[in-house]
């Protein structure tokens, strides 16, 4: 459920910032067809509403020595609140885990793990993952090649604002 209404300018702002979050406010305003002050107000509103959750640099994993990506399916023993909370909190604290999802299917959680190489994953698996609270089974899938990563979110599903009944804008 959408927490706020988006107009065409909001969608253009979000699309532009997803492409390049380093745009200056003046550049962004020019791109979306606003003057700088109203553009900045809209960006601030989107930030305050939590639509813009933050700004990040996108790093090349191999360039920083993280050449192996592993998708790890984890089955937990029980789904009691205490164990599930302990597992979630432990996973959040692991820097090697770049994403964690509660999923349906044969696993309960799907983790995306980045490490330098296979020996690094073996150490992480044996020394960390197998010791997480409630872990019953672990299945590892190694990425051979990354075809697409870090994509921008599609925004075409956001409803277009309806023009006023009198036809004036």
From TrEMBL:
<feature type="domain" description="HTH asnC-type">
    <location>
        <begin position="6"/>
        <end position="67"/>
    </location>
</feature>
<dbReference type="InterPro" id="IPR019887">
    <property type="entry name" value="Tscrpt_reg_AsnC/Lrp_C"/>
</dbReference>
<dbReference type="InterPro" id="IPR011008">
    <property type="entry name" value="Dimeric_a/b-barrel"/>
</dbReference>
<dbReference type="GO" id="GO:0043565">
    <property type="term" value="F:sequence-specific DNA binding"/>
</dbReference>
<dbReference type="Pfam" id="PF13412">
    <property type="entry name" value="HTH_24"/>
</dbReference>
<dbReference type="InterPro" id="IPR019885">
    <property type="entry name" value="Tscrpt_reg_HTH_AsnC-type_CS"/>
</dbReference>
<keyword id="KW-0805">Transcription regulation</keyword>
<keyword id="KW-0804">Transcription</keyword>
<dbReference type="InterPro" id="IPR019888">
    <property type="entry name" value="Tscrpt_reg_AsnC-like"/>
</dbReference>
<dbReference type="InterPro" id="IPR000485">
    <property type="entry name" value="AsnC-type_HTH_dom"/>
</dbReference>
<dbReference type="InterPro" id="IPR036388">
    <property type="entry name" value="WH-like_DNA-bd_sf"/>
</dbReference>
<dbReference type="Pfam" id="PF01037">
    <property type="entry name" value="AsnC_trans_reg"/>
</dbReference>
<keyword id="KW-0238">DNA-binding</keyword>
<dbReference type="InterPro" id="IPR036390">
    <property type="entry name" value="WH_DNA-bd_sf"/>
</dbReference>
<dbReference type="InterPro" id="IPR011991">
    <property type="entry name" value="ArsR-like_HTH"/>
</dbReference>
<protein>
    <submittedName>
        <fullName>AsnC family transcriptional regulator</fullName>
    </submittedName>
</protein>
<dbReference type="GO" id="GO:0043200">
    <property type="term" value="P:response to amino acid"/>
</dbReference>
<dbReference type="GO" id="GO:0006355">
    <property type="term" value="P:regulation of DNA-templated transcription"/>
</dbReference>
<dbReference type="GO" id="GO:0005829">
    <property type="term" value="C:cytosol"/>
</dbReference>
């Amino acid at each position: 459920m959408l927490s706020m209404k988006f107009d065409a300018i909001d969608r253009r702002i979000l699309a532009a910032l997803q492409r390049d979050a380093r745009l200056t406010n003046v550049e962004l305003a020019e791109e979306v067809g606003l003057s700088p002050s109203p553009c900045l107000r809209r960006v601030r509103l989107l930030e305050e509403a939590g639509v813009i959750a933050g700004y990040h640099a996108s790093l090349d994993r191999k360039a920083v020595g993280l050449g192996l990506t592993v998708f790890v399916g984890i089955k937990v023993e029980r789904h009691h609140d205490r164990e599930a909370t302990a597992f979630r909190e432990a996973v959040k604290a692991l820097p090697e885990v770049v994403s964690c999802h509660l999923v349906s299917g044969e696993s309960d959680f799907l983790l995306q793990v980045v490490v330098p190489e296979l020996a690094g994953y073996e150490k992480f698996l044996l020394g960390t993952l197998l010791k997480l609270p409630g872990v019953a089974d672990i299945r590892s899938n190694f990425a051979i090649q990354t075809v697409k990563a870090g994509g921008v979110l599609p925004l075409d599903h956001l409803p277009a604002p309806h023009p006023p009944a009198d036809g004036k804008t």
